[in-house]
Amino acid sequence: MEGEEERQQIQLQDAARHIVGMLRKALKSPSQNDGAPVQRGQTSGTPGSKRQMVSRPVQPTVSTASRSKLDENMARSFPGLFKKNCSRPRKRAVKSKHVQFFLLDKVTDRTPKTGEEMVLLQAGLGHRTVDIPEDADHSEISALLLESFPKMATLDGAWLLYKPAGGSGQRRLNVVSPEAEGYSGAHLTTGYTGKSCYYIMPIQESLDTSPLPFSAKEFSKMPKAKCINCQIHVPVQLLSLHIQDCQKTDTDSDCEITDDPSEICPICEVPYPVTDLPLHASFCGESSHLHFRDTLPSTSSAASAVQSTLSTAYQLVPVIKEWKSVQDPQEAVQLFLEQLKQEGASQPSLLLSLDATDDDEQRDCSLIKFYKSDYEKSQWKAPFRCSIKGDAAIGAGVTRHVLSSAIARLKHGFKLNLDFDLGNAAETLLFEGEPDHLVPAASTVLLESDLFRMAGRILGHSVINGGPTLSGLSRAVVSALTNCQKEMTKSKLCLEDCPDTEQRDTIGLLLKEEWTEEELSRINNLCLDWYCTVPTKDTNKLLIFQQLLSHAVLGRVTAQIKQLQKGIKDTGIWPLIEHRPEVVPLLFPTETEVQLTPQQVLQSIIWPRARSNHDDSDDDMPEETIALLSAFFRRYIEEASSDRLKMLLKFWVGWEVPPQRLKLEFVQSRGARHLPTAATCSERLRLPNHYKKFEELKADLMVCLVSVDTGFGLV
Questions:
Q1: Which residue in 312, 337, 513, 672 has the fewest CB atoms around it within 10 Å?
Q2: Do 268 and 285 contact (CB within 8 A), yes or no?
Q3: Which among 602, 700, 594 has a CA at the least distance from the CA of 643?
Q4: In sequence order, what are the beta bridge partners of 110?
């Protein structure tokens, strides 16, 4: 269409030029009959003949002034044809201006300090210079900023610009009010003097400040230089900081490991140098077991090497590989969590205090109060400690028990009534439905109380500390929670995901070929209630089925899912989900994937053995007794269900996550009522040796397991 219009325009211009040419030619060569003046008195003829008078028309001359006036009139009438050296109107060049922007990670009222600017720069935030055209609108400015700051994609346009006040040091930030259509290029370039910059501040969310790899997109435009120590190309802006860490690493690696005398730690049974043993023993057993770790170095030389270089009591294995690039998802989770813990090791410990005299409702209130508190993102990475007032329990076993109880409350409900719409209900469920089809509860009261954000914090905090995960969620909810495409999310919907059985039965009627009048009435009423198309003979039943099911499972709880996602982001584990989608099944497993088998437990047990020395110690036990008790306990595990094995692990170590090693001991009985005990910190279970029948051991173990929710064994 545009080509046809252009061709017609060219033809019109050619025709106009032709007409103007004919006019000019006519003006230059007029005919003799036009009344032109004639010169008289001239003769013509041959010599000697009578001269005759000849009349000759005089050629008119067009003056320069007349020609100039004609050109001016034609140029005025046809500017596109007669403008000098301009066949077509030229477009005016759009001016642009270099404007400096600074992306902040959170809401603040002052400019960051110098040290904070370096932290933000390593995370892909901080200073950038952007070319802003004067005629750019808000959407174009947003696209330019997103190109320079890829992390702004998570803000979904929820940001504002601020300008600092005058002066030096930390200055107060004042908002740059957008116009009705948002920010414009003319607005920003006019108000920019070049002496300062515009600060981009998130409105709702906080951005992750974890250091990015030097190959990240955020550093692609920065000039790079090679580090002479590690031969890695580093952005020049970060080179000085990298050199300090690089040299420090080289210095640490050159330290010699001395052959100091070592002794075995009585808790973990690993040899350590004598000089470091008191420090290690005071904190042994408190470091979390990563749920996704398959193997850990257990050689004495490796343990001594790590322990000899400890500068703090809470030291983790340094991140050797980049969690974004490793292929194994489990290894990626392990490396990411180790990185988080390294970052949080310098933070003050996060403390949770409970009271042993509280009932279930009071204890749940304490949990809710703790996880609704607005801690900084870095504080969730800090070492986690729990204490119980009025109980001698201390150490890692209590922490494991608290995290396990918190996850259990998410799945099975808090033992108090938080939703008054439920009447006098004894429990408040945040998730409802069948196992592997759990969806957030469609409760406005729970949503307005920010309880789903609290649930996201519990989940993220448990993952950081190696605890249990939230299993049994609907696959469609997990897909929507992790920002998958809508088409992929809808494809994972199934009828069992609808928590309301009455609504589920009505939606299921759409899969039938024919309906009774009563069934048709139920379908029509549900469609009208949810503003969906009422089915007819010509209607696509499957399409209506998909619309109703999507609304029943996801449509009514969209705000709950977003709040749950926000809580997960608060704890700092969202980059793992965002950059490694393949780890999502590990963080949100199905109930089948978290089932415990007897083989999983048996292969982790360190079975007691008879001692080779035959002294008269009271701890010595005949081999026959050890073999009999081992056979009884092995039989108990082999016959136990998955739920029973989880209860056993909770009694044994504090939570249902199987550790790498489970220590089993047989001790001298103090009487018939001497029950099994557990030291949860050292993951040690002690069985008295008075059992002569399997049924006796089984009965006593059942008594111990029912006390899991209220006690911790010996810690």
A1: 513
A2: yes
A3: 594
A4: 172
* Chain centroid offset of residue 371 CA: 19
Confidence of residue 632 (pLDDT cuts 50, 70, 90): very high
User: What is each CA distance from 468 to 243, 406, 432, 594, in whole angstroms?
Assistant: 39, 10, 19, 9
Is 492 in a helix, a strand, or coil?
coil
Instruction: Give the span between the Cα atoms of 669 and 629, in whole angstroms.
Output: 13
Q: Residues 173-189, buried b or exposed e (16+ Cβ, 10 A)?
A: beeeeeeeeebbbbbbb
Q: How far is CA 431 from CA 426, 437, 462, 471, 556, in A?
A: 15, 10, 18, 11, 13
Backbone angles phi, psi at 666, to 5 degrees: -110, 125
CB 591 within 8 Å of CB 472: yes
For residue 298, which amino acid is it? S
Q: Comparing C-alpha atoms, which of 241, 221, 203, 246 is closest to residue 127?
A: 221
Name residues whose C-beta falls within 8 Å of residue 646's C-beta, 6 or more positions apart in sequence: 596, 656
* CA–CA distance, 67 with 62 (Å, rounded to integer): 7
pLDDT (0 to 100) of residue 476: 92
Give the ranges where 125-235 is alpha helix by DSSP (H): 138-148, 185-191
Q: What span, in angstroms and rounded, lies between the C-alpha atoms of 415 and 401?
A: 17
Asked if residue 616 lies in contact with residue 673, where contact means CB atoms within 8 angstroms, the answer is no
Across the chain, how many H-helices and E-strands are there? Answer: 27, 19
- The CA distance from 118 to 238, in Å, is 8
The single-letter DSSP state of residue 683 is T
Tokens of 439: 């969806």
Between CA 418 and CA 585 the distance in angstroms is 30
Residue partners of 380: CB distance under 8 A and separation at least 6: 344, 350, 457, 460, 461, 464, 570, 571, 572
Q: At what angle do helices 694-705 and 642-653 cross, to 10 degrees?
A: 70
Give, in order, the Cα–Cα distances in Å from 382 to each of 106, 615, 681. Answer: 19, 48, 19
Q: Which pair of tokens denotes residue 360?
A: 């279930």
Instruction: Label residues 240-251 b or e (16+ Cβ within 10 Å = b).
Output: eebeeebeeeee
CA-nearest of 387, 382, 399 to 286 is 399
Report the distance separating Cα 545 and Cα 213, nearest Å.
46
- Three-state secondary structure of 27-71: HHCCCHHHCCCEEEEEEECCCCCCCEEEEEECCCCCCHHHHHHHH
Of all residues in the chain, what percent carry a pLDDT higher than 70?
A: 73
Record the pTM: 0.57
* 658-693 confidence digits (pLDDT tens): 888 899 999 998 888 899 988 888 888 999 998 999
Concatenated DSSP letters of 538-594 = TS-HHHHHHHHHHHHHTGGGHHHHHHHHHHHHHHT-HHHHHH-GGGHHHHS--TGGG
Give tens-digit pLDDT for 198-248: 889 888 778 878 777 777 777 777 787 777 777 677 777 777 777 766 654
432 Cβ contact list (under 8 Å, min separation 6): 438, 439, 441, 499
Tokens 């404007």 belong to residue:
99
